[in-house]
Design brief:
The protein has 74 residues and is mostly helical. The chain has 2 helices and no strands. It has helices spanning 10-29, 36-69. It is elongated.
């Protein structure tokens, strides 16, 4: 059975990204910055969430522009 695909809005991704950044800051305060595996995993999660957020935001902007101005020709 294929895995279900869940679409997440750019606004939700931005919220997730903010939570991950807060987690990174808290990890530093709690001494977890020395845990290389934890920090690498957190860095990877932040990077993938940021990439998804940027891609979703750009797509949303392009769709809104197309809805307002019509398709680009040429």
């Amino acid at each position: 059975m294929p895995a279900a695909t869940t679409l997440t809005s750019p606004a939700e991704l931005r919220g997730q990204l903010q939570l991950l950044e807060q987690e990174r800051a808290l990890a530093g305060l709690e001494g977890l910055a020395a845990d290389a595996h934890y920090m690498a995993d957190l860095r990877d999660e932040i990077a993938s969430t940021r990439a998804a957020y940027v891609g979703g935001a750009v797509t949303e902007i392009a769709c809104l522009r197309a809805a307002v101005s019509g398709a680009l020709l040429g």
